[in-house]
Specification:
Blueprint: H1 3-33, H2 39-75, H3 80-83, H4 92-124, H5 130-161
Helix pairs in contact: 1-2, 1-5, 2-4, 4-5
């Protein structure tokens, strides 16, 4: 493989590590941060952490998409000849690709809902209210769900890399 392929794999893996590692780190930090200060302080802290990670996360997701396309091209998986090959979708590789593509789609939708609707809404509601607690709980649940989806995506990515 070429230098551009290896660079694309490096960027892909690094972006995945930063994105998934950030989600796992936030999940591990959340219980600790719930004991910091009053509700307004905690809400502000989670809101600032969320905004900071949102930028890094979406940069990583864009890098994952771009580097993934470079890898597809380098492997010769670019174009209809590959994607419409007889038996592809019933093969182990086709099953792994299906799983990866489905989890990518789910992950992007869930991430967008969390980052651009639920998280910001939860951050704007006055701290200490029942509505703030409900929205923060939903945002946390959505973030945890997306972390599980990301782990499934990692599983399918390994399967694709190993030929199904």
């Amino acid at each position: 493989m070429t230098l551009s392929y290896h660079a694309a794999v490096f960027v892909h893996v690094l972006s995945a590590v930063v994105w998934l590692g950030g989600m796992i780190s936030l999940a591990l930090l959340a219980p600790i941060l719930r004991g910091v200060g009053d509700e307004a302080t905690r809400q502000g802290l989670f809101h600032r952490l969320g905004r900071r990670f949102r930028l890094a996360g979406w940069i990583c997701l864009a890098a994952l998409g771009a580097s993934g396309l470079v890898q597809l091209h380098a492997k010769g998986w670019w174009g209809m000849a590959f994607w419409s090959a007889p038996g592809l979708w019933s093969s182990p590789l086709g099953h792994a690709l299906t799983g990866k593509l489905l989890t990518v789609g789910i992950m992007l939708v869930v991430q967008a809902l969390h980052d651009f609707w639920l998280g910001p809404t939860a951050g704007r509601v006055p701290a200490g209210t029942e509505e703030a607690r409900r929205l923060r709980g939903l945002a946390a649940l959505l973030a945890r769900f997306n972390a599980v989806v990301a782990l499934a995506l990692l599983w399918f990515a390994v399967a694709v890399a190993r030929g199904g």
